[in-house]
Recover the amino acids of this structure.
């Protein structure tokens, strides 16, 4: 089932991508399926298990080409994970594939006990993750998966950003000796710059380096952060952009280093603002005593807006324009030595004020002292 | 031992009494444990590990070994006691049950030699067994996979997902044994959430079903030796929770009751009397 996709990139964002020489690739989902088939052709013990999700997972071709290496369990995610574990216990290399929303909620106990606690190196693949399903609604969104899975011991979490990271992540997962969760969406992705090195589980990739703002992003939100960084550079604001494709184990050293080199950090993820990359970074920075302005941009803790993935990204501040605006606000607040106003990432007034104890405690008159940011260029979002 | 006078399977009958005694000893020592359920499945484990399963400490990493998954993980004391007797680890380690830093957790973990899968949350073992049985089919291996389920556990819907897959994939290398003691922590399974008739349910899911007295060594050997063709086997083993200690039998409060000193001595005396009677018959 699908709903209107919408355009993930504004004309301005597309212009920035063109200026950077970035080309539009395919959906990470397609690259996943293609890479898996290539691996499986040479490895009879590599199996894929689906829960009526072969179509959603672009795995119809896999099943037709290698029928003995495809196990179908029907619409039964708990059974999907349990069977994957039983196969892995018998020495198979198993990819269990299902929409992230169902896989990581319906089968959470199987993931916790049968995969992670029992220590079987199953490769859990959450497809059409985040808000990929857009207007199909919250039943189909996975905005909880990183938070839920981060708290489970013995499970690595990888969220590739583009086709290159996806292919590398799938290959790495196939050879990985530990339980692992891969997560990606179904929309076509720009191919990111090479950055400072090849994909390696547990090691973030620096895509751009600057001294003012560090965008620490993960998955398919990285491109928007990269575009925002580029847009800001035209204003003389230099930005670091990091693809933190591995949420666990987190590249703590890299996060500390890029934060120390900048005045403000914006974390960006297609996930709830609770429990994902942003809070993980906040914990790292606070515990390291790194004093830097920080804004966690993600999906607010509220009944999610109905709309396409593009609508939801724009509404919750994950577009290039909103991310650039958030960074400007952070810098202004930082330079004034005052606490910053909530950025567009927390644009839901109800939620941001309720959930921010600092704002609740602030006397009413200080709202004006905090000051509105100066006039800004049009965001280009119409 | 005068073989001609001995009742059938005297050695295993002796073991069942010894296992029950040891289960009580380690639960008393730990001050915790699932007494009723462990006593109810002792004879099943006895027969599996001493007559049926092709597995030993030496062959535990052999890909062709038979597998046993204890989905009703709370009856872990019975499993630990039988594994110790089979030489998977020294008996002395049993006394570390639930002690600080011990691998002998209050539910099975693979850190204990001989344990195939970590269990404790109910409704997980059958799917894992299905997966390993499918792998056996893919590899044309001849190992069998046994999964022990509680009758109360069958309220977990995941069991029925697994049951559908098992018949869909014609897993005649998979046997589910239901330790059907008719009790769960709250009371009668029939009163908590009735799952009867179990045989008709499994048959409707495409399984072959056999009933057995879950405390008859001879009958358990016979039914667990049977290999169906083209479909999985469900063995409904009628058992008595707390079996072997009169005041624990068929009483829900002994689900995880730990005997006080008086009860403990009375229970051991009953088991010792059973052991003595076996020797009288043997002579």
């Amino acid at each position: 089932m699908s709903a209107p996709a919408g355009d993930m990139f504004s004309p301005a964002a597309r212009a920035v991508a063109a200026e950077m020489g970035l080309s539009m690739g395919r959906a990470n989902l397609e690259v996943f399926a293609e890479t898996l088939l290539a691996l499986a052709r040479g490895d009879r013990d590599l199996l894929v298990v689906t829960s009526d999700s072969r179509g959603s997972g672009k795995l119809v071709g896999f099943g037709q080409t290698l029928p003995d290496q495809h196990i179908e369990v029907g619409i039964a995610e708990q059974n999907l994970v349990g069977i994957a574990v039983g196969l892995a216990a018998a020495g198979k290399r198993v990819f269990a594939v299902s929409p992230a929303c169902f896989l990581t909620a319906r089968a959470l106990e199987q993931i916790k006990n049968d995969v992670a606690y029992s220590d079987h190196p199953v490769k859990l693949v959450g497809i059409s993750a985040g808000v990929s399903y857009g207007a199909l609604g919250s039943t189909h969104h996975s905005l909880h998966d990183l938070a839920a899975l981060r708290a489970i011991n013995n499970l690595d979490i990888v969220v590739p950003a583009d086709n290159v990271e996806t292919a590398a992540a799938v290959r790495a997962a196939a050879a990985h000796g530990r339980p692992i969760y891969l997560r990606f969406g179904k929309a076509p992705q720009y191919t990111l710059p090479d950055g400072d090195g090849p994909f390696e589980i547990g090691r973030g990739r620096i895509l751009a380096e600057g001294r003012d703002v560090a965008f620490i992003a993960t998955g398919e939100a990285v491109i928007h952060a990269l575009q925002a960084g580029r847009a800001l550079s035209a204003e003389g604001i230099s930005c670091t952009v990091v693809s933190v494709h591995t949420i666990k184990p987190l590249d703590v050293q890299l996060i500390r280093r890029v934060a120390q080199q900048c005045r403000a950090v914006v974390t960006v993820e297609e996930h709830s603002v609770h429990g994902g990359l942003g809070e993980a970074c906040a914990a790292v920075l606070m515990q390291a005593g790194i004093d830097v302005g920080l804004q966690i941009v993600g999906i607010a803790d509220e009944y999610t807006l109905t709309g396409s993935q593009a609508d939801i990204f724009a509404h919750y501040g994950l577009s290039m324009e909103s991310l650039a605006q958030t960074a400007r606000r952070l810098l202004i607040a930082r330079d004034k030595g005052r606490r910053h106003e909530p950025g567009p990432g927390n644009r839901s007034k109800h939620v941001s004020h309720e959930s921010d104890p600092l704002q609740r405690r602030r006397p009413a008159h200080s709202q004006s002292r905090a000051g509105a940011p100066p006039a800004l260029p049009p965001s280009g979002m119409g | 031992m005068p073989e001609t006078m001995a009742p059938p399977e005297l050695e295993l009958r002796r073991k069942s009494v010894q296992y029950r005694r040891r289960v009580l000893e380690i639960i008393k020592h730990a001050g915790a444990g699932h007494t009723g359920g462990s006593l109810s499945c002792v004879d099943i484990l006895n027969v599996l590990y001493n007559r049926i399963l092709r597995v030993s400490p030496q062959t535990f990493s052999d890909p062709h070994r038979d597998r046993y998954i204890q989905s009703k993980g709370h009856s872990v004391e019975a499993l630990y006691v039988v594994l110790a007797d089979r030489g998977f680890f020294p008996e002395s380690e049993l006394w570390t049950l639930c002690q600080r830093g011990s691998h002998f957790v209050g539910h099975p973990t693979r850190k204990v030699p001989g344990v195939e899968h970590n269990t404790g949350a109910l409704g997980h073992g059958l799917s894992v067994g299905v997966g390993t049985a499918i792998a056996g089919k893919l590899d044309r291996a001849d190992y069998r996979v046994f999964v022990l389920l509680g009758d109360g556990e069958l309220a977990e819907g995941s069991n029925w997902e697994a049951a559908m897959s098992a018949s869909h994939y014609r897993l005649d290398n998979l046997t589910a044994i239901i330790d059907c003691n008719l009790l769960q922590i709250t009371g009668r399974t029939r009163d908590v959430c009735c799952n009867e008739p179990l045989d008709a349910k499994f048959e409707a899911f495409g399984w072959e079903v056999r009933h057995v007295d879950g405390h008859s060594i001879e009958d358990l050997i016979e039914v667990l030796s049977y290999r169906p063709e083209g479909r999985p086997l469900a063995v409904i083993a009628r058992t008595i929770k707390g079996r072997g200690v009169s005041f624990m039998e068929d009483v829900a409060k002994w689900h995880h009751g730990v005997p006080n000193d008086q009860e403990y001595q009375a229970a051991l005396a009953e088991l010792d009397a059973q052991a003595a009677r076996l020797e009288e018959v043997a002579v």
